[in-house]
C-alpha cells in the first residue's frame, strides 16, 4: 500500500479537540488507502514549559537531561493521538523514538539523524496498524534520549517519509501554505501552489517560519515531496518539490523579510591580508551570527568593514570587537552601529536564467524613495538592508513590481 | 559503598522548589557515603491530568497507550531531579524504566515486576554517578512501556532496594510516619518508631494510605527495611521492619478505619453446598470487592449471607445478585442493604501470643454504646463493622482502651 507521512505541529494538537480534528484528517487518508505514519509535536506551549523548568534548574544544564525532560511532551501527544484514532476505528499504535528506533548522534539538544530502522514499523503496517510517532526525538549511541532541536518534528517527519518511501509528507500547521510574502504586510500576498526546494530553503532561512530549514534540506536531498497545509481548513496547501515539477517558470516566487537586523561598520581597519579573518573569527567565537558582509574601497591603507547581524546580538558583537582590539588582533578607528535596519529579500529560481532581476528590484525601491544600505546576492536571491521604517513599503513595492499577486 | 534508595512522592516533587528540597536530602545521604538511587513520582497532579486526558479519548482505552502517556510524568521529574542534583555538585543521571531496564509482564496499567537488570546502573555507581529513576514504569516483553498501577512508585522503590541490596529504602511523603491511628480523628494519635511488615500490610490494606500494599508485600518478601518519613521536616520517620527487630512487644500497634463501607445481607438463601460459591462467584465477576463475609445460623433449610463492600460498589453488587437470580444460579427471598456503615480494625502482632484482645475491643465499644454489626478476625487483626455515625467515637475509644497514646 502507498505510504503517507502526516505531521501535526503543536497548535494542531494543542488540546483533545484539536487532536480529534487532526485524527479525522488521518482517517480520511487511511480511508483513501494509505498506510499512514503520523508524526506529532508536543501540545502547544508544552515544550516551552519543560524548557523553562530545565533552565530554572541550572544555567549550564546537562543536555542529556534536557533531552530526557523535553522529549516527554511528544510522548503524551503520540499516545493520545493513537487512542483517538483507535476510537475512530483506525488501528494505530504509538512509537517513541527509542522504540522505532530512530538513531541519532550524541549531540544532545540538536542531534543529527543517523538512521531509522523501519523494520518493526513496517511489520506493523503489514498487520494493518498505522503508526503514531513522537517527533523531535531519537536514541543516542549510548542508549539515551536525544532531541533534534526546536522545530525538529518537521525533520523527523521528512526523515520518516524518506525512510518509508512515502508518497508525500504532509506538514499540517496553522497557516494554509507558503505565501508570496507575509500576508500581514500586504493583502495582495498569494498562496503558492508549488515552490522549489531551493526557494523554500532560502525563504525558510530568511525568516519565513513555516518549516524548519533542516527539514527542507533533508527533503531536497532525499526528494521527499512536502506539502505545507492547515489543519484548520480544507483547502489544498503548498507543495514543496523539485523545480522540474514546477511548470511555469517564475522569476521571483516570494519576498522574505527579517525585521530586527543591525548594521555594524568597523571604521578604519588596516587594509591588509588576515584582517577579515581576525574580525569575523572574533565575532564567531563571540557567538554572533553574522549575515551580510561588505568591504568598502580602501583609502590611505585603511578600509571600512560592514556586516549585519540580529539586533539582539549587537552587545555581544561590541564585546567581541573590543576584546579583539584589546588583544592587539584587530585595529580600527571607530565603530558605527545602526540598530534600525531590516532585511528584505526576493527569492526565485527563475533568476538563474533571467538577467536584470536585481535591477528591477533596485528600481522599484528607488521609485518609492527607499535607500539601500547593503546588498548581497546569491544564485536565486537578492537581499538588501534598508531602514526599518521602510520595511512594509519595500515589501509592498517589490510584491507589485514582480506582479506576485498574479501568481498561483 | 553502602546503597540507599530514596523515594519521593508527588507532593515532595510538586514544583522546582520542592525538587530542590528533596535534592538537598539526597545530597545529605550522598555526603554520608551512600550510593543513592532516587526513585521519583510525577509532580503532584500530573498523573491525574494525564489519566484524565486518556479517559476523555475513549471509555475502553488501550492500556498500552494509557501507559505510554501516563508514564511521561515520572520522566520529567527524573530529569529535573538529576539536573538539580548536578547543580548541587552531586553527579547524577536519570534512568527511565526501559533504560535500566526494569522488566515487567504485559499487564498494562497494573504490571508486575519480573526482573531488574542492575548491571548498567551499578556500573555507573562505580563511576560515582548516582541514579535518579523514574518510578511507576517498566518495560514489557514486547518492548512497550508498562506502569505498575497507582502508587506504583513505592513498589518501584522497594524493588530497586531489593535488587541493589540497599541498606534501607526511605519513602519520603507528606506525613512524617505511620501513626497509631488517623491524627485527624484523635489528637492522641502517636507516631510509631517501628512497625512490623505484617502490621503495616494490614494497616495499608485497611485504608491507611501511607504506602501501596504491594510495596509492603515486596519489602516483607525481600526483607527490605523501609522508612516512611516526611520530606518537609527533619524528624525521624517510622521504620517498617521484621518483627524480630522490634524490641518491646505491643498487643495493638494501630487502629485503622475505612469510612465508606456497605453491609449487604442476602436473605433466605437455600442452605446447601455451592450456594456461597454461586453468590461470591457472581459478585467477583461483577467486579465487586467483597471484604467481610458472615453466614448466619440456618433455619428451615434457609440461611442469610452477609458481606461488606465499598459503598460505591453497591449498584454493581445489586446487578450481579439480580442477574444470578435471573439465571437460576442463586435463590433468595430478600436483600437488605445498609449503606451507612464503617469498618474499624485493631492491628498488632502481639495478638498472636496474647488472649482476650478481641474481648477488650468489644468491651470498649460496648462501654460507649457502639453496636457491632459484623466481626472478622485474622491472626493479627480484629475488624468490626459499625454504624458510620459511631466511627470517630469508636476509634477514640479503642485508642484509649489499648493505651496507644503511650506508644512510641
Automatic annotation (TrEMBL), chains A, B:
First-level EC class: transferase
Pfam families named in the record: AA_kinase, ACT, ACT_9
GO cellular component, one term: cytosol
A GO molecular-function descriptor: aspartate kinase activity
Catalytic reaction(s) noted: L-aspartate + ATP = 4-phospho-L-aspartate + ADP
Signal peptide: none
BP GO terms, sorted: homoserine biosynthetic process; lysine biosynthetic process via diaminopimelate; threonine biosynthetic process
Positions bound to substrate: 47, 74
EC id: 2.7.2.4
Domain ACT residues, every copy: 264-349
Similarity comment text for this entry: Belongs to the aspartokinase family.
Protein name: Aspartokinase
Organism encoding this protein: Amaricoccus macauensis
